[in-house]
């Protein structure tokens, strides 16, 4: 649980190899977090990475198997106690062209990008409500603020996730636990390797810095970069005939 000064002490990262997730964890450890759980597929038996002076544990986690998600939360609590920050940071980007040709692949991607987050989010929220404190950091995307023709399968899953996260935050209101929704634009990293960066792109480190600032200020929604909030206020009301021509 949080230390005597109210700083984050324990962190659970679901998607333990995520560039953004690890960048957030590194900054939380730098700020004083002492115990970290990295949960990812086939993590068992591996050697935990060194993250500052923190005690780091590994757990197996498969986003596509929601029937196991409650066990993952329970196992994390057994390892480090109360969870101060829970970061679901898993997902697949994929290609709209592939999804157009293979609806099964599209459905499987949505099951992870939306369904997996719903499952682990509800399990995490239940635990944080019982504790009476803690934050779920939900990595949404501007792709879900208004879904574009160029990546509508991915964007629709993010739209669902964004709505779910806001509803979950409202459901937790007054419990001491909360949800922070993070809406990055294009993030330059492994997931987008080979793609031309969009305007107002960010790095995983920049997203992580914004998350830390949001945690400190108890923000409910964080845009990365912040200027995207103004841009999407306009984009939300663009006529559909114009919007459907947007390339990305």
TrEMBL record:
Record has Oxidoreductase as a keyword: yes
Family matches, as InterPro entries: KR_dom, NAD(P)-bd_dom_sf, Sc_DH/Rdtase_CS, SDR_fam
Pfam families, per database record: adh_short
Origin: domain of life: Bacteria
Any GO molecular function: oxidoreductase activity
Oxidoreductase listed as a keyword: yes
Ketoreductase domain location: 9-190
Keyword terms: Oxidoreductase
PROSITE patterns: ADH_SHORT (PS00061)
Family classification: Belongs to the short-chain dehydrogenases/reductases (SDR) family.
Protein name (Swiss-Prot/TrEMBL): Short-chain dehydrogenase
């Amino acid at each position: 649980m949080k230390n005597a000064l109210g700083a984050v002490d324990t962190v659970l990262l679901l998607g333990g190899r995520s560039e953004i997730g690890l960048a957030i964890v590194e900054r939380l450890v730098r700020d004083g977090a002492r115990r970290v759980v990295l949960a990812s597929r086939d993590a068992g038996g591996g050697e935990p990475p060194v993250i500052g002076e923190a005690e780091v544990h590994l757990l197996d986690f498969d986003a596509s198997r929601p029937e196991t998600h409650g066990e993952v939360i329970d196992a994390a609590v057994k390892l480090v106690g109360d969870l101060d920050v829970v970061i679901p940071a898993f997902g697949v980007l994929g290609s709209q062209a592939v999804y157009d040709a293979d609806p099964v692949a599209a459905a499987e991607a949505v099951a992870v990008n939306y369904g997996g987050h719903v499952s682990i989010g509800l399990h995490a929220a239940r635990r944080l409500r019982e504790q009476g404190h803690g934050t779920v950091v939900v990595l949404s995307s501007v792709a879900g603020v208004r879904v574009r023709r160029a990546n509508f399968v991915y964007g629709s899953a993010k739209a669902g996730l964004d709505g779910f996260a806001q509803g979950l935050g409202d459901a937790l209101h007054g419990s001491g636990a909360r949800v922070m929704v993070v809406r990055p634009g294009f993030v330059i990293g492994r997931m987008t390797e080979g793609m031309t960066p969009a305007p107002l792109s960010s790095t995983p480190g920049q997203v992580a810095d914004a998350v830390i600032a949001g945690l400190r200020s108890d923000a409910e929604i964080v845009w990365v970069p912040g200027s995207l909030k103004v841009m999407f206020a306009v984009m939300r009301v663009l006529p559909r005939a114009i919007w459907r021509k947007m390339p990305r």
